[in-house]
Amino acid sequence: xxxxxxxxxxxxxxxxxxxxxxxxxxxxxxxxxxxxYMEHGFNYFDTAYIYHGGNSEKIVKTALVERHPRNSFTVxxxxxxxxxxxxxxxxxxxxxxxxxxxTGFFDYYLIHSIEDEKGYEKHTxxxxxxxxxxxxxxxxxxxxxFSFHGTPELLRKIVSEHPEVEFxxxxxxxxxxxxxxxxxxxxxKILREHDIPIIVMEPVKxxxxxxxxxxxxxxxxxxxxxxTPASLALRFAGSLDGVATILSGMSTEEQMLExxxxxxxxxxxxxxxxxxxxxxxxxxxxxxxxGCTSCRYCCDGCPQQIPIPDIxxxxxxxxxxxxxxxxxxxxxxxxxxxxxxxxxxxxGQCESVCPQHLEIVSLLAxxxxxxxx
Length: 373
Ligand code: SF4
Ligand code: SF4
Hints:
Layout: E1 11-14, E2 20-21, E3 24-25, H1 27-39, E4 44-46, H2 55-65, E5 74-80, H3 87-101, E6 106-114, H4 117-126, H5 128-137, E7 141-148, H6 152-161, E8 167-171, H7 184-193, E9 198-201, H8 214-221, H9 229-238, E10 243-248, H10 253-262, H11 271-286, H12 308-321, H13 324-334, H14 349-353, H15 360-371
Parallel strand pairs: 1-4, 1-10, 4-5, 5-6, 6-7, 7-8, 8-9, 9-10
Antiparallel strand pairs: 2-3
The structure holds iron/sulfur cluster (2 copies).
């Protein structure tokens, strides 16, 4: 049976940023959040083989399967292409997922994160789409889809070559609608042309749109409806036809309660709110950014192995979205095996090769004050 987006729960519970205690998923809190979510009429849980090192799938078993009737919730999980070397790997991983979750079958199963032609070619060579379609025939998968981070051209190609796909999960939010690195708007239009239901990921751009820069906050605060920035971002996605479910990776009960309020029921954006969002996007775009083009000419010769363009991308994100704590966490992860901004010894090698003539030493010193604090 194909998916009817109008019958799907609009709010999906993403199980990728679950609350932790001493680096272990906080089972009690996840149970409270899952119960709260279901008590309000929602039932879409989104996990993946890799989330929380595999423990996200395991908590599906303990928090859901062992505590609620199987027909009271639906589970989506994903096949990680980067873990596959040969066709037999798909069977092995799938069986492992069934054991971990204890669900018996998956309501939604996605080929996880197709990013580019190379990734798609790998799935074509392994015949992953055909394999997942067979699992659907066997009743072990109810609905088949894929999550996508690539270009509109590639998306068009995949959905044309695979009419068996029932839904696609894409990154979609107002800041990325025309962002050339993401192109949410173009991806959305292709899926609408093909009448394919959409699962939205990153509706709040990893949390950045929940805490925007002061100029954006000001615009939103002047709206008569006084919406929170997070609710506006969620309603932007929810106002689009063809959107089946909007995933939110909730980590606290407070976040969950705020989201439940937004979705009970979800109201479309008013014209004033739409106009405020357009102004917010203009402000975000006009924020002066470090003009690094990520050519990486500076990287090879850096004696401190500092990932300069990656650090500049993080600094730009802080300038545009103000979400320093999240970006600092991202920075720590990104530089876990390399030099950090504070390690620059001002040798000047990078500046001598930078085609954009950036004052890299001084920019890194600026970045270090926030990122290495
Ligand atoms: S100036 Fe700093 S960032 Fe540039 S190459 Fe030297 S150590 Fe690396
Ligand atoms: S050489 Fe300049 S533009 Fe290229 S990645 Fe390095 S800092 Fe960015």
